[in-house]
Amino acid sequence: MNFVFTARFILAFTGGLVVFSLGWVNPALLWAGLCFDLALIGAALVDAARTPLRGSFTVRRTCAERFALGSGNTVTIEVKSHSPLPLTLWLKDEHPPEMEVQGREGQFVLPARGTAALAYELTTPARGRFQFGDIAVRLLSPWGLVWRQTSVPAAESVKVYPDFRAAQRQVIEAYRVGRQGERRQRLRGQGREFESLREFVTGDELRHVAWAASARRGKLVTRQYQIERSQSIILMVDCGRLMTARIGNFTKLDYAVNAALAVAYVAVAGGDQAGLLTFTRRVDDFLPPKPGAGQLGTILELLHDVQPQMLEPSYARAFAHINRYCRRRSLVILLTDVVDADASSDLLAHTASLIPRHLPLIVTIGDRDLRAFVKPRPASLDDVYAQSVAEELLAQREQALNRITELGGLALDVPTGQLSPALVNRYLEVKTRGLI
Asked: How high is the pLDDT of residue 373?
């Protein structure tokens, strides 16, 4: 049966049953109630037959090609009428069950040969590929006794990507709001790419004096430099066991992926070449550094389905891959986490292999829950033990980061909530200081 009775039918049918139940008072009421309900059922069947589904309307789902992790994504169900009469419709979309939904169904009147739309919002809990189902449609019959129902084939898959919208906002924030003026003041004199000559002033470094030009002009002249463009940035993302830890609604890997994407957007916008390497026990994906917006699309595609695995990461294989296939000096940004001495020593040993050819920036993703243990005054013996463990782990992490700095690399330890802006700012700082 491809129809269901409406509230109007049920109310009328119930009235007939009430009359039927009074048959013990008057037998005529018994027959009257019975005939009324039978006639009502017959009318409903005729009403259903007079409600053609085919050709009355068309339904289409539209949504963005790319869903962003953790943000609202709008889905629209568009309906177009082919009937000369108004139609009353009820729609319900079969959204991916893993996603949180707001308002995926609704009822409305469609004007004669008119159009209408039902919009609702989905919030995505994870990256990857998800599946939409069909669209359920009910059409109210002319007499309002039944809903004719059908299912419009609309199965499709959708990809959920890292939060590229936040990455795009990071570019705007870095280059148009707070950082642009600061960068303009700091560009000259600290980069690697020659820009122009100017008269020497007190405070300029002697190593920047252009002696030949000074001799020709009869006064000291200094070289001005600007930040070198088209430098090489390699983003290394650890997908191992420690990155499975959840902070709020997302894993540490989710935060790392979002931060890597933000840096890639800013780097490409600034004219640099961005590359990507993901690894666990082996190198899973490697994308050599290249410039241009097309590289961003490739990075986004590689990152959309990266998932953490319960495996120990092999820093040796990851860094060996960088040394083997990246001959040009690069800023190598490793997004990882370390919580014990063994992991720290392994990371340190192989980080040293990158220096001096490359400049490593080791980013450890801080656990805000771990820091929360050491702040309050312990209220019990269990709290004392928990604080002791947390303090030991934090101390080991600090020693490892200090050792990286001593070796000639860079280190950054930041909580997940501040990871993307902090990493983008550190990248810009490295550029302005001409360290690459």
From this structure: 60
Cα(339)–Cα(291) distance, rounded to whole angstroms?
A: 35
Residue 137 near residue 88 (C-beta atoms within 8 A): no
Q: Kindly state which CATH superfamily the domain 57-161 is placed in.
A: Immunoglobulins (2.60.40.10)
Peptide bond into 142 cis (omega under 30): no
Task: State residue 181's pLDDT score.
Answer: 43
Longest dimension (CA), the chain: 127
Q: Percent helix, strand, coil in the chain (nearest 5)?
A: 40, 30, 30
User: What pLDDT is recorded for position 343?
Assistant: 67
**DSSP-assigned beta bridge partners for residue 334:** 236, 362
Q: Are strands 193-199 and 273-279 parallel, antiparallel or unpaired?
A: unpaired
Rounded to the nearest 10°, the torsion over CA 382, 386, 389, 395 is -140
Amino acid at 71: S
Contact 359, 436 (CB under 8 A): yes
CB 111 within 8 A of CB 71: no
CA dist 322 and 360 (Å) reads: 11
What would the two tokens of residue 337 be? 């986490």
Instruction: Take residue 411 and report the two structure tokens written for it.
Output: 């280190």
DSSP-derived pairing of the beta strands 3-5 and 87-93: unpaired
> What are the residue ranges spanned by the domains of the chain?
3-49, 57-161, 188-226, 232-432
Structure tokens at 334: 């490793």
Secondary structure (3-state) at 362? strand
Beta bridge partners of 152: 135
Please report the pLDDT score of residue 189 as a whole number: 40
**232-432: what fold?**
Rossmann fold (3.40.50)
Q: What pTM was computed for the model?
A: 0.72
- Give every residue of the chain whose pLDDT is below 70, as ranges: 1, 170-196, 203-206, 224-229, 339-343, 367-376, 378-379, 382-386, 389-390
Q: Burial level of 10, CB count in 10 A (0-12/13-18/19+)? A: exposed
